[in-house]
Predict the 3D structure of the following.
Amino acid sequence: MNGGANINDSSIEPTPRAPHLAMTRRKVLILSVAVTGLVLAVSYALGGIAAGEGFAIGMAVVAANMVFLNLAIGLLATTASENFTQRMGSFFIVLMFLMKLPLFVFASIFVHRLPNPAPAWFLVAVGLVYSSTICWALCEA
């Protein structure tokens, strides 16, 4: 039939990916920064200063939210160890984590007071940061 090879043979291993094609954290970071710069330039070209401001504010706020979330996750990992003694630093990390939502709400209210293309580009920035975060997480897996 098929030369005696069994389809369920466990000796067949998948071919490894070429190391130069593998996405690393560094490549994702460089790609994200390049795409961000390109989209910022496109926002200024298509929507003017208001669109650029909306995009820049969105990038800053959501990037800050991601940093706060990363710090909170790091704090949880540190707390799981038995030699955790930092009290004041953990207070500020938890405070920053709790400020994520109000910071985002105030920024979106501020952007909605700007001229028309700004809110749309604010949402483009939010989507771009979260897409980059998903790509980053997939590279870790």
Remarks:
- Helices lie at 25-80, 88-98, 100-112, 117-140.
- The longest helix spans residues 25-80.
- The mean pLDDT is 80.
- The radius of gyration is 22 Å.
